[in-house]
From TrEMBL:
Skewed-composition ranges (Basic and acidic residues): 10-25, 144-194
Active site: C597 (nucleophile)
Binding site for S-adenosyl-L-methionine: Q438, E518, D569
GO molecular function: RNA binding; RNA methyltransferase activity
Keywords: Methyltransferase, S-adenosyl-L-methionine, Transferase
Organism listed in the record: Rhizoclosmatium globosum
Residues forming coiled coils: none
UniProt record similarity statement: Belongs to the class I-like SAM-binding methyltransferase superfamily. RNA M5U methyltransferase family.
Protein's recorded name: S-adenosyl-L-methionine-dependent methyltransferase
Amino acid sequence: MGGLEEHEDDDTHFLGEEVDGHGEGSDSAPATKKVRVDESGASLASATTASTTGHQQQQQQQQSDAPRFQLKLFGIDKFAAQKDLNRAIAAADPPLKGLVKNKKVYKLEFATLWFDSEENRAAAIPIVEAFKFKKSDNLRAEIVHADAQPERSDNRDRAQTGDRPQNDRRGGKRGRDAEKEEKEDTRTPQEKINDQVTPLWRMPYAEQLALKSVRFKNGLGTLKKNLMGFLNSRDVSDEKREDLKYITKLKKGDRICPLEDVVPSPIIDDYRTKCEFTIGFDLDGNRSVGFLLGMYKDGVTTVLPPTDCKNVPAAAKFVASTLETFVQKSEMDVYDRVKKLGFWRLVQVRTHSTGDVMVIVQINAVDVEAAKKKEVLDSLSAVFQETGKITTFLVQESSEKHNGFVENAPMHVWFGDGVIYEELLGLRFRISPTAFFQVNTPATNGLYGRVREWCQNPAPYPVDESDDPDAAAAATDAAKTETKPEKKNNIVLLDLCCGTGTIGLTMAPAVKKVVGVEMVAEAVQDARFNAEMQGCTNVAYICSKVEDAMREVFSKHVEAGDEVVAVLDPPRAGVHGAVIQAVRACKGINRVVFVSCDFEAAMNNFIDLCRPTSKKYQGKPFRPIRSAPFDLFPHTPHCEFVMELQRLPEDSSSS
Ligand SMILES: C[S@@+](CC[C@H](N)C(=O)[O-])C[C@H]1O[C@@H](n2cnc3c(N)ncnc32)[C@H](O)[C@@H]1O
């Protein structure tokens, strides 16, 4: 990608003694940042100079009239001033292209940058995340869609529905600004939807991969920098500090562990197996089913069909248009999210390579007679069935304010058996409506294939170059070499956050035992069913939070002499610190294969696995050994990431 460069940790701006939120006694909740967003009073600030000439003013005026693509940079030292941001921008390498304006308010932990194009904004992400401020850590750039607050990183569904946070009240200056921006925006409505759902859709795929690659390089730099912060901390004893000595042996610019190139997705378009659409009104006021456009007109948010969305498969578009036609003729009202009245709310479509299609429609049936509700849904059910393309149809009722499917609300099956099936790595999996399943099956084959390989064949523990350069080179080569999985009769695989059992079941034939832990009861039922369907008898599932289950796991399922390997595949924001503490405290776990769909958001988990031993984080720290990103989400900034971590040997001070 033109001009994009890696900003590896250059060992010059360590965090000193205080590593934000990571002191010995600090809490280690996941890294999601909750920031109050204040859009008012954005001032035009030149990136490089304080004084502006008439020509510059004219240029700035022209720039400010152009469509602006907003990026928020979180994690900035709250005491940094506008001039500190300007300094960072001026020093950016490579320089930021198309920056229109920027703003940092003293005492807020974020800055806002506006760009002249979607592409320049996307290209800026790795560059701004490498900015240095006095006390900043884990800088994290988030795209802000026109007229919307930043997408919450822990809410996949909101990204899918294209929904805007409910507390986004219009009116006042912000509402007027939004209306002005809408008028100035020359994009077609469909382009806006595409920008919202698939922000990288205009970028060639090779450039998307390059962009993601830089983020991971920077992310590993952040991890290294944070761990070095412990080396400088007075709170860490000399003895504990020794455990992190391996970092000091890395040469300047060396990564904390090898990082492979981003593995591309085998399919780039139409890959999403799960799509959620809102039922609303289009720009002409007609009833529509699709993505909520971040636009606000006369108190109504606009919903446009997913016609050109690159990641939405034809089967999901077909369901959306079939439902749209039905809803247009329906006597029942579309749900109004301001008045909280109306019947039709949302639809979720799950489409799998087996040909299975699950449709879940969400309705608000408050004040609707049971007989009427049944009549309407029976009639929709008949339409869906007549298409011959939908395998199962379910309905969820919700009167909740929140625009999304409600986790624990019941789903009523209208036809079909209420579940769908998918094939992964040659195995068949049943998926219940509330169970998680990766949304890009061909790319998941690659990711889970790699997880299986790394679980079964550990990379040799690194030999630090300063101790033995030849052995270090050989170990690095071995870490890069793909090896064939072998049956290991003493491996007990802990599939933590196992969902429907996918990862563990692909490994069950090759290990002594698989123990899955998952907190969603339906997913655990699926996992048990899937194990039985595959004839796996060496598996056990515990329906519990991981942090509460570790004692049971060890007392019931692990024997002396077992090699315990943990796969951790948590939600986007990572797991609660208690899970990491539990894994650290289990002396039997010497290897962790961590799968993350947001490396930056789960950064605290990685830091906590690797930080020096303390009262809270017991047991020897883990060390990152190797890592590889897999692109499961083309056209979006998201990417999966897998890292193997190994427990430091007991005599690690000599390693
Ligand atoms: C990213 S999904 C991975 C599921 C599975 N590994 C797969 O690939 O299909 C994360 C899973 O973690 C579960 N989960 C989240 N927090 C958990 C916790 N504290 N304990 C147990 N399960 C948890 C969620 O219900 C979800 O099924």
